## 1
Amino acid sequence: MKLFSGSSNRPLAEKIAIELKTKVSPSEIFVFPDGERRIQIQDTVVDEDVVIIQPTTPPAEIHYFELFFLADAAKRSGAKSVTAVVPYLGYQRQDHVFRDGEAVSLEVIVNTMQSVSIDKVISFDLHTIKIPEVFSIPMLHLSALPLFAREIQKQGWGGLDTVLVSPDMGGIRRIKIISEMLKDMPYVTIEKNRDLATGHVEMEEIRGEITHRVVIVDDMISSGGTIVKAAQALRAKGAKEVYVFVTHPVFSSDAPKILQDSAVDKVYVTDSVFVPKERQFPKLRILSLAPVIAGALG
Ligand code: R5P
């Protein structure tokens, strides 16, 4: 197996390589003055299973193109197979037509993956369980929930004073799964309303009883609006400790600042998305997906 990394999350690729007792193979991603990329893999891959680590985080277009070029380079150089490890799958929220006239952007991306001979995709905590259906190539849908459940147990949170929270109705399946992992820890759901035109979120109703400690579980933080509003609403209902477990720290614009200034005590995320030092904040805790990914590849 030969492991390559695009530019979006080299530290994760290095950690996966350590887990697999191998090295990240060299490649060059040259950026021309106009922003175009020229990719060259610099290792022999003839008859090898090639793995490319590249979460397609913002700027998703650039990271997708790097992935496509790396896959193309590997196949042209004789690779037997190409597996794309895309822990965070960009454009996943555009998996169907929400309003007349919209594109199904994710389907365009999957078609392109297929056209550059990517054989398999591995991703984590997709926004809906229907997303793998958009894929015409094998897709392994993994989850950070077992990692989160272990951390919650390690912290000793449970009993009558802790409740899990899904900050929107779309997360019910996710919250039921982690509740089962935690010996049927009780959960509540929040009805969230998002204005599709502005992206603005409002928490409409909390369904269930709030206890001393609440543990919000979600798939991603982008603007931070969902978590900040959910934490406010939960505190208003009497929660005294608010913890957050989210797989993908996309952290667009000023999300780190609004999370640090929010009613949340700690925000646990994974390294599916690289968060540079200057975007990290005191309430942030990062858990690594590398052992899980290595296990799936090994
Ligand atoms: C939405 O349905 C997702 O599960 C997340 O709650 C959402 O994408 C988070 O986005 P933001 O941080 O911008 O509110």
## 2
Amino acid sequence: MKRLAILFVLLLLGCEAQPEGEIWRFAIEETSGSVQDQYAQRFREMVHERTNGEVRVIVYPYGALGTSDHITEQLHNATLELAMSSPGHLGKLIPEVQAFLLHYLLSDDPEVNARALRDPALRAFLDGLYAEKGLSFLTAFGEGRMAWTTREPVRRPEDFDGMRFRVMTSPLLLASYEAYGASPTPLPYSEVYSGLQLRMIDGQVNPVFAIEEMSFYEVTDHLIFPGHAEFVTTLAANPDWLESLPSERRRLIEDIVDTLQTEIYEVQSALAEERLEAIRARRPEMQIVTLDAEERAAFRARAEPVRERYVELAGPRGRRLLQLIEAAVRRADGAFAGDDSVAQ
Ligand code: 6CS
């Protein structure tokens, strides 16, 4: 049924009178005003300006072309040229990228992660993984600290006992929340609000900007910062399309992606603050807590063995990616002074 609906939208798009000139179709996994939307809109403006209007970028917000899985499929089939592909969903196609979902691996400081995600060795490795699955990796960036929103308070892993907790659809997320004793429930983004409202699920996890714009704070009572992860997304392109572009267009894309790497850090940072204030103002009774070091340590201890589960799922290349991320975060954090080597 969903496939039919998507086919229908694609047919409509095909029939719609298209303006003259080159068109690049860019799908995002979030709604208007989100971090991904602000990225895509800036990308669109810069392409337009720097090609003197020869290229138009059409941005499709979440829902226009289906779920994250549908978007990746369309990118693969060249119905789209560019798309955001978050590891939380893309892990089904590229198991190794689930490393970004491991808890207490990235820093709790988005600025450190922003530096780590620029690491050339890490990016080159991701490049190879995406290419093998018929996608071109363009970049990875953080969208902000993740918070849990739940109906009941959570301060210890035991508080998760039996909790039906919504996660994105990558398999590793099941292991991550099972380790806390929860009953993880994978669902597409579009079904989270109704799932909480109808009490099919008791909690979910997302960055604050998303909790605000998807109104998850309306249907949960506790917002908890466990310091366990930042939401990381990746931008990918269809490889045949990318290779078919003249070299100056490819350079233009590289240039814009490079500029946006800095800009998007500022965007997510401002949104995280503004939207938390908006939640406080609209729902003053919402209990907002940041877990302290001791509380985090209890979750960290449960999360540690999930790394082995990840390696089982993602194999030796998964282990390698994990090492590259660890090394990049250490270097970005300034605690890895001078030594660039990472064990093979
Ligand atoms: O929870 C999700 O499924 C979604 N969350 C965000 C912040 N972006 C895209 C992703 O699909």
